[in-house]
Design goal:
Order of helices and strands: EEHHEEEHEEEH
Radius of gyration: 21 Å
Largest sheet: 2 strands, antiparallel
Number of domains: 2
Shape: elongated
Structural class: alpha+beta
Mean pLDDT: 76
Number of strands: 8
Strand content: 15-25%
Helix content: 10-25%
Strand order of the largest sheet: 1-2
């Protein structure tokens, strides 16, 4: 993602992810499946559960849950530790609570000057989303497995 620094007007680059990235990438893959089928396959959602297991790479849970009460940000090779209490003015999150903050680090945090830039800090656990084997509310079915996904989806063409 490209951002313009509001203080200097300098164009900066940032890493993005989540649905902002996944949606256009999946749409492009689905368009390639439409092209391979020679027709529109329609909505992807009704077909996803019918695809063979090899067409999708499942996202599996990471072992061990860690309750994050602090977060580290590194600018110019200087590591600074933040807590939810210090940054957001709230008590430490409960075990099922989750808070996050988008911080523009052009200001002086804790006596340290940082290179200007944005940082997303997360505290706690988001227990509403959990990766499991198969379909889950955090990762859906998983990640399309390239050409295997496209070829498998193509099989749902009506003109067979």
């Amino acid at each position: 993602m490209v951002l313009t620094n509001p203080n200097t007007g300098v164009v900066e680059f940032a890493v993005i992810g989540g649905t902002s990235l996944a949606t256009p990438v999946f749409s492009a893959i689905w368009a390639l499946a439409d092209q391979a089928a020679g027709e529109s396959l329609g909505l992807a959602a009704p077909l996803m559960g019918s695809l063979p297991a090899f067409a999708i790479r499942d996202i599996l849970p990471v072992a061990g849950k860690q309750q994050l009460t602090t977060a580290d940000v590194s600018f110019k090779n200087v590591l600074t530790n933040y807590s939810a209490t210090d940054l957001l003015g709230v008590p430490p999150p409960q075990t099922s609570g989750f808070m996050s903050a988008l911080v523009y680090a052009a200001t002086d945090f804790g006596g340290q000057e940082h290179e200007p830039g944005y940082a997303v800090l997360g505290f706690g656990l988001d227990s509403s989303l959990a990766a499991t084997v198969g379909w889950d509310n955090a990762t859906g079915y998983g990640v399309p497995n390239g050409l295997l996904f496209i070829d498998s989806a193509r099989q749902f063409a009506r003109h067979r």
